Amino acid sequence: MFEFAWPWAFALLPLPWLIALIAGKQKHHSTLMLRIHALAHMGMTNTKVTPSRKWPHWLLAIVWALVVASAANPVFRGEPITLSEPGRDIMLAVDLSGSMREQDMAYQGRFVDRLSVVKAVLSEFISQRRGDQLGLILFADTAFLQTPLTRDVDTVAQMLEESQIGLVGRATAIGDALGLSVKRFNEKSQSNKVVILLTDGQNTAGNLKPEEALILAKDAGVKVYTVGVGADGRNQGGLFSMLGSSGAMLDESLLKTIAEQTGGQYFRATDTQSLANIYKELDALEPQAEQEQTFRPVDALFYLPLSGALLMLFLAALWRQLKQQAVVGDA
């Protein structure tokens, strides 16, 4: 829809005529005397002078109207566009400890390591988070922020895919991961503060105990959903199974306590399907917010009448110059 953002600017349209009306009578006498003096000078020198031509009034009127139209800021407003505001802020905390290398989870007809299954299923969960803000924390000996909270879920998925076991050690610092998540949420003034923490073990490293991190999470109002990954030790062929690092070593009691005391929920992921079902349940537990923001794109068009005014002045000046040259040539 075409409209003028500042229509009151059209009140300036009669300004030149008002000025001319007020100043016209005062200048009439002085202008007449100048013309008489010029004619007398012409008679004394006997020189033929071509009288100057004023700009046509209709041209000046059109130029002024175009300038005023430009000042009124013409715009074109497009059709309303509705965008969903970020429904949730979700921090993903993924375990990269050595036990995540154990190949005890079935995926596409074969047993693969736990991290590969987490990547495959979690990537699908990330791709569906349009409208949410996601962050990624990776932890093992300690925890570090791989991706801050962002709407760019494609980048979060890429950072997860590029993560490797051993990147931050081989132990499991659950307390550090939860504590870092709380810290990142505290930097936001408004947030629903949801953490999804995935691990296959128990806290064996880090500077912050899980119990201490839990207190921080409760004080900050962070809701934590914990996911225990592993096949309950049924597949004992892996190296970490022989070392006692299978799913049977998962500290489910700790994960349940963290989830329950923060208002979240604990889930057990023993295979690909159960992990995928968990993310579907999370969608139901943490539904997308229905808040929407509507705006209309605006294209500024002030340059069109302004360009027209400048073009008319240029063409008129060029025509006048050519005509004067023709008159001088005839003389």
Automatic annotation (TrEMBL):
InterPro entries: UPF0353/GerABKA_families, vWA_BatA_type, VWF_A, vWFA_dom_sf. It comes from the Bacteria. The chain crosses the membrane at residues 6-24, 300-319. The keyword Membrane applies. Keywords: Membrane, Transmembrane, Transmembrane helix. Residues 89-282 form the VWFA domain. It holds the Pfam family VWA. The keyword Transmembrane applies. This is IMP dehydrogenase. It comes from Pseudoalteromonas ruthenica.
